[in-house]
Amino acid sequence: MMKTVLITGATSGIGRATARFLAKNKFRLIICGRREDRLAELQDEFSALTDVHTLNFDVRKKKEVKKSIASLPPDFAHIDVLINNAGNAHGLDPIENGDEEDWDAMIDINIKGLLYVSKEVIPGMVARRSGHIINIGSIAGKEVYTNGNVYCATKHAVDAINQGMRMDLNQYGIRVGAINPGMVDTEFSEVRFKGDRERAESVYVGFEPLKAEDIADIIHFVISRPYHVNIADLLVLPTAQASATLVNKTI
Ligand code: NDP
Ligand code: 8X3
Q1: What is the ipTM of this complex?
Q2: Contact (CB, 8 A) for 98 and 149
Q3: Is residue 241 situated within a structural domain?
Q4: Pick from 160, 202, 150: which is nearest to 180 by CA?
Q5: pTM for the full model?
Q6: Is the CB of 34 under 6 A from ligand 1?
Q7: Taking a C-beta distance cutoff of 8 angstroms, is the pair 22, 80 a contact?
Q8: What is the CATH classification number for the domain harbouring 184?
Q9: Sheet holding 233-236, edge to edge
Q10: pLDDT in tens, 196-236
């Protein structure tokens, strides 16, 4: 039977590549994001391949999240796989110069938003005693790097939430796992540096970063394992990257 997958942050980067990959592989999709124009374009593209529904909400807004997920038509209401992907870094500043707006954005989106969406999806999974949740963490959830302070804290929180969710939902047979990428060339750095494209592009110069499609392929692999296999925690790096800060620019 066709599985239904809800992907947050499907309008760009890892989420969009995953939606595209899963559409080609005949998963029924619920694609979410704030940019309505992009959702509409992707709906057009994917509807030739599979059933697709769009949800336009900001993960920070608890009521919007609740209302959007409650509005799903019956064909899409039974969510088999939740991919908690929406998130970004905002700023890269030493703690003494950190901007409170950036801190709020990262904590509200990367941690609280992930929880709000999960809160609306988990009850259905519990009732059906089945489901699979993929939390997109980061190498920044395993290590801290200079000026990464609050972003790293949010991804460490995702790591803890991933472990906690897996324990709490174990009794219902629900699979929970995290995928923790290293550097992936998406709009991530453009958002982090507030639209400064030159600075964003410089992050990926001199080595071959991961592509969003690399992570999409891995997500597809993870959710296609037989039921008794749960890939609980995966760190995925570009070959040139050995740690959050060690990148070999000579290969
Ligand atoms: P992108 O900036 O390309 O994509 C981010 C996605 O998140 C967009 O679709 C955006 O949609 C959505 N999003 C952001 N804020 C909100 C919000 N308030 N409400 C709803 N949706 C939101 O970055 P990536 O694809 O790289 O990032 C995806 C995930 O991967 C993030 O969790 C990130 O932390 C993680 N990650 C990224 C790495 C990288 O190097 N790129 C490495 C490790 C982890 P919209 O703006 O339309 O709402
Ligand atoms: C994004 C990876 O190390 O560039 O989560 O912050 S990093």
Answers
A1: 0.99
A2: yes
A3: no
A4: 160
A5: 0.98
A6: yes
A7: no
A8: 3.40.50.720
A9: 52-56, 28-33, 4-7, 81-84, 132-136, 175-181, 233-236
A10: 999 999 999 999 999 999 999 999 999 999 999 999 999 99
Question: Residues 4, 81: contact at Cβ < 8 Å?
Answer: yes
Query: 244 in a domain, yes or no?
Result: no
**Which residues have any ligand 2 atom within 6 Å of their CB?**
89, 138-140, 148, 183, 244
Give the domain extent around 208: 4-236
40 belongs to a structural domain: yes
Given the residues 116, 145, 151, 204, select the one marked as catalytic.
Answer: 151
Please report the beta strands in 9-102, taking only residues with DSSP state E, as ranges in sequence order: 28-33, 52-56, 81-84
Residue 128 dihedral angles phi and psi, to the nearest 5°: -90, -5
Distance (Å) from CA 9 to ligand 1 centroid: 6
Token digits of residue 194: 């507030």
Measured from the Cα of 34, ligand 1's closest atom is 48
245 lies in a domain? no
